[in-house]
Amino acid sequence: MTRNQLLWAKRHLPPKEYRAVIIKTIKDYFPLVTFLSLHSPLNLRQRYWALVIWVKQSLSHCSDPFYMAQFYGIYHYFINRFGDCPQKLKIKLAKSR
C-alpha cells in the first residue's frame, strides 16, 4: 500500500506536492529523522541520543510485520521493484492477523 501510494503521488500530483508525500511517508516510518537533520537546532549530544532512540525503534520495528511491510514498500518504490511483496513477509502478516 505504501509503495502504491508513492506511485500514485508521482503520477498524479504536481512535483511540490509529490515531494511532500515522500517526506511525510519517510517521516511516518522514521519519525526521528528530522532530529538528525543538519538544519535542526539540536546540539551534538541531543543528536546522539536521538540516533540511539531511532536505532532502538528501528530494531523493535523489525519484528513487527506491518512496519516491515511499510519499509519494503518504501524501499521497493525507490529501487523500482514492483509486483507482490516478499513471501516471508506475507507469511508473517498472515500469522499476525
Description:
This protein has 97 residues and is mainly alpha-helical. It has one domain (2-96). The protein is 70% helix and 0% strand. The protein has 5 helices and no strands. It has helices spanning 2-12, 15-29, 44-61, 65-78, 87-96. Helix 1 (2-12) runs antiparallel to helix 2 (15-29), helix 1 (2-12) packs parallel to helix 4 and helix 4 packs antiparallel against helix 5 (87-96). The radius of gyration is 16 Å and the shape is flat. 4% of the residues are buried. The model has no long low-confidence stretch (mean pLDDT 79).
Can you lay out the helices and strands and say which pair or pack?
Elements: H1 2-12, H2 15-29, H3 44-61, H4 65-78, H5 87-96
